[in-house]
């Protein structure tokens, strides 16, 4: 019986930790128009957080490329593009990385945190966090 209770506690703890993680698929919502734009997959690699576009919801932009991006992202398809790079956990927030806006090709400092298990707050900014924009993404099941 003790083994069963221990196993149950481990399973519940694992499920609880997973549901409170930023890892997973998220529907991006444009902060200016309120429209759903894409599905982004947030993942961990070498202890850092990254995110890439895995689906574009706007049919007009399904085959768009990042014309205004620089470096290795220039003229890359937005589908599959890594838009969040190298965030580190800092308490309940992830920061010290960058986010790419494919619309204008610019990189911004980035911070993200869970507002709830199904709502992710993303803040892109220049310099310090007061000069920036915030988006809220919603978890996709």
From TrEMBL:
Pfam families: DUF2147. Residues 24-139 form the DUF2147 domain. Gene3D superfamilies: 2.40.128.520. This is DUF2147 domain-containing protein. It comes from Flavobacterium ammonificans. The lineage of its organism: Bacteria, Pseudomonadati, Bacteroidota, Flavobacteriia, Flavobacteriales.
């Amino acid at each position: 019986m003790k083994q069963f209770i221990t196993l149950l506690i481990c399973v519940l703890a694992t499920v609880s930790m997973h549901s409170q993680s930023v890892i997973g698929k998220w529907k991006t919502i444009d902060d200016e128009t309120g429209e759903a734009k894409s599905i982004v997959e947030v993942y961990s690699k070498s202890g850092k957080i990254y995110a890439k576009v895995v689906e574009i919801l706007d049919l007009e932009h399904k085959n768009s490329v990042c014309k205004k991006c620089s470096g290795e992202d220039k003229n890359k398809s937005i589908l599959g593009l890594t838009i969040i790079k190298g965030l580190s956990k800092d308490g309940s927030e992830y920061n010290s990385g960058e986010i790419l806006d494919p619309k204008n090709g610019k990189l911004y400092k980035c911070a993200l945190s869970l507002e709830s298990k199904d709502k992710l707050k993303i803040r892109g900014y220049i310099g310090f966090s007061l000069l920036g924009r915030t988006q809220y993404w919603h978890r996709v099941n």
